[in-house]
Design goal:
Blueprint (H helix, E strand, L loop, with lengths): L6 E6 L2 E6 L3 E4 L9 E7 L9 E9 L4 H19 L5 E11 L2 E12 L10 E12 L4 E9 L1 H6 L1 H9 L2 E2 L8
Antiparallel strand pairs: 1-2, 2-10, 3-4, 4-5, 5-9, 6-7, 7-8, 8-9
Length: 178
């Protein structure tokens, strides 16, 4: 990827994100996808090598408000890291509630040892994540965009990858009749 990469925008059910034009989009048929809840990932998939970078976007209907959600999400992630990674080294490099699109969002940068297959590896290895989570009041949905990849690759292109994570948008959910 270079600073002059061609970008595209993928949008579904009012949720959208920018991604490099040559990345592939994947849906998980087990998780389903609707206006209320959804998940997909976009990867720099290369045949025989797999993905080095994976950008995922998920959303779900929730009852909250923008500012409370951002704070609660950050607290929840900190607790999950402590609970899930007791024997695994991890580092939360940055965790803060920031201004985002006229509201608040949780912004988290972390690194940890991932399991095989997390970023198409055959063995365990470290992964670096950049994550942004916010609550969209008009559509009543929690939205999370996450980039995950090998630390050296993410660090090398961190500014561009952060731009992708921060390009997430969420629009109002329309009713069935309009």
């Amino acid at each position: 990827m270079t600073t002059l990469m061609e970008k595209a925008v993928f949008s579904i059910y009012g949720v959208s994100i920018e991604h490099p034009m040559d990345w592939k989009i994947f849906f998980d048929p087990k998780r389903g996808c609707s206006r209320s809840t959804g998940f997909f990932r976009i990867e720099d998939f290369v045949p025989q090598k797999g993905a080095q970078l994976s950008l995922s976007l998920n959303w779900e209907r929730a009852t909250s408000d923008n500012e409370s959600f951002a704070h609660q999400y950050a607290e929840h992630i900190a607790q999950e890291y402590q609970k899930q990674m007791k024997k695994t080294p991890y580092q939360i490099e940055r965790m803060e509630v920031i201004d985002f699109q006229g509201g608040k969002a949780a912004y988290i940068v972390s690194e940890y040892r991932g399991s095989p297959g997390l970023v198409k590896r055959k063995t365990d290895g470290s992964v670096r994540t950049i994550q942004l989570a916010f609550y969209d009041d008009p559509s009543q949905r929690a939205v999370v965009s996450t980039l995950i990849g090998r630390p050296e690759r993410v660090s090398e292109e961190e500014d561009l990858l952060r731009e992708l994570v921060f390009s997430v948008r969420c629009g109002r959910l329309e009713t069935e009749d309009g």
